[in-house]
Every structure is written in structure tokens, then in C-alpha cells.
């Protein structure tokens, strides 16, 4: 039996097993088995499986992958937002490789990747599904493009495809501490009441992975699936913005309904509607900040800001300016929303905000 058959067998068994207290352990083990087989499926089997035309180098400050069914308008969006042209046409699978473009926004260079359309079964190798998904895993944000004139099942189908290969959209990593040990058995603990798993189920799942010695600490009320995510190290957690295109074809009421859904933006690439707002939201999901440097007695350098991730400290800023700056660092003066006073004297651990100005004073 091939892996795909095994997967479909287990999926069928999960589907026909009633969910209740008595089957809880059985289901947990089945899910762990399923996760294992799917992980095997992801391992590159044939040489060169990654595929010509998909190994695009990362460049710029962040990477965004355009994922969607065929002909939803992905290439049209790339050609509209960047100076790169990507062929668009009314037939499906116009795009067959990964086409990179650059969106310049707020001084940042954002790499936008146009990709072939994916379809149901993509994760199992249909179309160019596996290559597309491999690229999606390397992105900082997924732009899932949807056709606003079509039913919302397309979104669920795509989410399922990505979910089945370990991509988690708009989800936090489960707060479970997990460490495999050399001996001592399974040490299981929690810092809160657990309603979805118990020690026995956790043990059974770990045994399915042939893990007999480990430290497991639940810091929140997680499910068996979330535990499996933590054990399977190949999970990625990505912010995802759902972009509903072709709103020129639907009623205002429908546009209004879709626009109110969480993580969603409505646009028309052909009519260039709402693309500014799309970029604004994308910026928010990328969680980038701009930090401006200033030399003593001179105005800040607003033309050449540093592009960094939200949550960076002064120490990160020093590294971004010069490799050895943190070593000769005495203190910094910061102007902006991260401080109580402007300027304020801060140390290396101070967390920077968007549009802060910094002046580093050396020893
Ligand atoms: N009505 C309407 N049509 C659009 C819009 N954006 C794109 N299209 C049309 O949709 C069709 C498909 O566009 P593409 O950009 O090729 O779509 P794609 O997602 O790149 O398709 P594949 O590469 O085949 O996966 C083309 O005929 C476009 O002109 C839009 O905003 N409104
Ligand atoms: K197309
Ligand atoms: Mg295309």
C-alpha cells in the first residue's frame, strides 16, 4: 500500500469513528499516524522534485506568496503592484513557475511571488501543488487570493490543502513545552486545567512517534491536534490575508458582507479598486517597522530608514547598522512612541516602535 492509500484509509477511519469519550484515545492515535504519513509525503522523493522555476532567491525585506485557485487574478495583481509583468489570461494554469516581483512600500522592498494556481489535491502532488506549497512555506505572509464571484468553499478547500501539509494560517504556535530526553520516561505536567487531553492520551500519541522519554508541559488547554503539531517539527505558522478579487462583478451588498469577514480585503485588480488598502493591510500583517538613525547635531535620516521586524530591540538596531556597534554601545537616545519622553536614554533591551528615531552613543 502506498502512502497516499494509507492516508486515505486513516482519513476514512477517522470520518467513520464517532467522536466521544470512548473513542478519544483511538482518534488521537489515528491523528498522530496521519500526521506522520503526511510528513513522509512532504519529504522530497524524486531528485529535482523541487522543480525548475521554483527556486527563487529570497530578496528584500520580506516575502509574500500569492496562493489561489487558477484564474483568480494572481498574475494580474503582480503585474499591477510591481514593475514585473506576469502573463494573465482567461484560461487556467497560465502561470507555470514562480514569478518574483518587488512591491516598494514605506521604504521597504517586499518580494511578491506569483505562483501557479493550486487545486484540490495539490498537497498530494496534483498540478504543481507540492512546489507551490514548498514556496508558500518560505513566505512571511500568505496572500490567499479568492474569486469573489465564486462560493466560499474555495477558501475552505485551500485552507485544508495547506493545513494538511503543516501550514497553520493566522494561528499561534501552541503553548506547549516539549523536549525529548534520553531517559526518565514521560514527565507530563500542565499549568492550567486540561479539558481536551489527559496524560494517557498524551502518552499514547508520544508512543505513536516512538517517543518514550520526554518532558511535556501544557501551558494552555490544547487539543491532541495541537500536541501533534508541536511534536511534528515541520509546522509553520503564517499570517494570512484573504484577498477577494473581481468585486467589479458582484453587488455592493455582497462586497460589504465579504469585507467584514476577519482577515479579508476586497479588491478588483482589473479596475484597480482598493489596492492601496490592500497594501496597508499587508504592511500590518508583515509586522515591519521603520527606524530612522540620527547623527549628533544633524537631523534624522528620513530618506534611508532601517526596515526591521516588530518587537526588535535597540540591540537588533545596532546589528542592522554595523556588526560591532553593540560591543561599543554606551546608550542610545530615542525619539518616538516607544519612549515616555523624547528623547529618552535607553539601553540595548529597549523595544523599538515604527518610525522611532535613534542616536547611538558609543563608549
Ligand atoms: N472581472 C475581473 N476580472 C479579473 C480581475 N482580475 C483579473 N481578472 C481576469 O481573470 C482572468 C485570470 O487572471 P490571471 O491573472 O491570469 O489569474 P491567475 O490567478 O494568475 O491564473 P493562473 O496563473 O492560471 O492560476 C483574466 O482574464 C483576468 O483579466 C478583476 O478584478 N475583475
Ligand atoms: K489564468
Ligand atoms: Mg497566473
Automatic annotation (TrEMBL):
Key words, A-Z: GTP-binding, Nucleotide-binding
TGS domain residues: 287-362
Organism superkingdom: Eukaryota
CDD domains found in the cross-reference section: DRG (cd01896), TGS_DRG2 (cd17231)
Signal peptide per UniProt: none
Domain OBG-type G: 62-287
Keyword Nucleotide-binding included in the entry's annotation: yes
Molecular-function GO terms, alphabetical: GTP binding; GTPase activity
Pfam families: MMR_HSR1 (PF01926), MMR_HSR1_Xtn (PF16897), TGS (PF02824)
Name of the molecule in the record: Developmentally-regulated GTP-binding protein 2
Organism from which the protein derives: Nezara viridula (Southern green stink bug)
Amino acid at each position: 500500500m502506498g502512502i497516499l492509500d494509507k492516508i486515505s484509509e486513516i482519513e476514512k477511519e477517522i470520518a467513520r469513528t464517532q467522536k466521544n469519550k470512548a473513542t478519544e484515545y483511538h482518534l488521537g492515535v489515528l491523528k498522530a499516524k496521519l500526521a506522520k504519513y503526511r510528513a513522509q509525503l512532504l519529504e522530497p522523493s524524486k531528485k529535482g522534485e523541487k522543480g525548475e522555476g521554483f527556486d527563487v532567491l529570497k530578496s528584500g525585506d520580506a516575502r509574500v506568496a500569492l496562493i489561489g485557485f487558477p484564474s483568480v487574478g494572481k498574475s494580474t495583481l503582480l503585474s499591477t503592484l510591481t514593475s514585473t509583468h506576469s502573463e494573465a489570461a482567461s484560461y487556467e494554469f497560465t502561470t507555470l513557475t514562480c514569478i518574483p516581483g518587488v512591491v516598494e512600500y514605506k521604504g521597504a522592498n517586499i518580494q511578491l511571488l506569483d505562483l501557479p494556481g493550486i487545486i484540490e489535491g495539490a498537497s498530494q502532488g496534483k498540478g504543481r501543488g507540492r512546489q507551490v506549497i514548498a514556496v508558500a512555506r518560505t513566505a512571511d505572509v500568505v496572500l490567499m487570493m479568492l474569486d469573489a464571484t465564486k462560493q466560499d468553499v474555495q477558501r475552505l478547500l485551500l485552507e485544508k490543502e495547506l493545513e494538511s501539509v503543516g501550514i497553520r494560517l493566522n494561528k499561534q504556535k501552541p503553548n506547549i513545552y516539549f523536549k525529548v530526553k534520553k531517559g526518565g520516561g514521560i514527565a507530563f505536567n500542565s499549568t492550567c486545567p486540561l479539558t481536551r487531553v489527559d496524560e494517557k492520551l498524551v502518552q499514547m500519541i508520544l508512543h505513536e512517534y516512538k517517543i518514550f522519554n520526554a518532558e511535556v508541559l501544557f501551558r494552555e488547554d490544547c487539543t491532541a491536534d495541537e500536541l501533534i503539531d508541536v511534536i511534528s517539527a515541520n509546522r509553520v505558522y503564517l499570517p494570512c490575508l484573504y484577498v477577494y478579487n473581481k468585486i467589479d462583478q458582484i453587488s455592493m451588498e455582497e462586497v460589504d458582507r465579504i469585507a467584514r469577514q476577519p482577515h479579508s480585503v476586497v479588491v478588483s485588480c482589473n479596475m484597480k479598486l482598493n489596492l492601496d488598502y490592500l497594501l496597508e493591510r499587508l504592511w500590518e500583517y508583515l509586522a515591519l517597522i521603520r527606524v530612522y538613525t540620527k547623527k549628533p547635531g544633524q537631523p534624522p535620516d528620513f530618506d534611508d530608514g532601517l526596515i526591521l521586524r516588530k518587537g526588535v530591540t535597540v540591540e537588533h538596531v545596532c546589528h542592522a547598522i554595523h556588526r560591532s556597534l553593540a560591543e561599543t554601545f554606551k546608550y542610545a537616545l530615542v525619539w518616538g512612541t516607544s519612549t515616555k519622553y523624547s528623547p529618552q536614554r535607553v539601553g540595548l533591551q529597549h523595544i523599538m516602535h515604527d518610525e522611532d528615531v535613534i542616536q547611538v552613543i558609543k563608549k
